TrEMBL record:
PANTHER family: FE-S PROTEIN MATURATION AUXILIARY FACTOR YITW. InterPro entries: Fe-S_Maturation_MIP18, FSCA_dom_sf, MIP18-like. Residues 10-83 form the MIP18 family-like domain. It comes from the Bacteria. This is FeS assembly SUF system protein.
Length: 105
């Protein structure tokens, strides 16, 4: 059965929600660190993400973990993770759920 790009995008988001920022007990998706997930017809994916700060202690390992976990999905051919600081991450990017979790609401 062929999987479409939208279904694959949903699967990727589910995987992203299993990856946590080591300093904040909230997954990177709810934290707002994922800016975009692109999936093309060849099932190659590109994830545009940011970090809470440019000198984040997991700057080396977190993008790698994202890439490896997304690549582990059987329908994904390849995954590229691009880190950007434009726009810079702010707490406004966090989901209501994340803010609630961290006692910010």
């Amino acid at each position: 059965m062929e999987i479409n790009t939208e279904e694959l995008g949903d699967k990727i988001v589910r995987v992203l929600k299993t990856i946590y920022d080591p300093e904040i007990p909230v997954d990177i998706y709810e934290l707002g660190l994922i800016y975009d997930v692109f999936v093309n017809e060849d099932m190659d994916t590109k994830i545009l993400m940011t970090l809470t700060t440019p000198n984040c202690p997991v700057a080396e390992t977190l993008p790698l973990e994202v890439e490896e976990k997304v690549k582990s999905l059987k329908d994904v051919k390849d995954c590229e993770v691009e880190i950007t600081f434009d726009p810079p991450w702010t707490q406004d990017l966090m989901s209501e759920e994340a803010k609630l979790e961290l006692g910010m609401l």
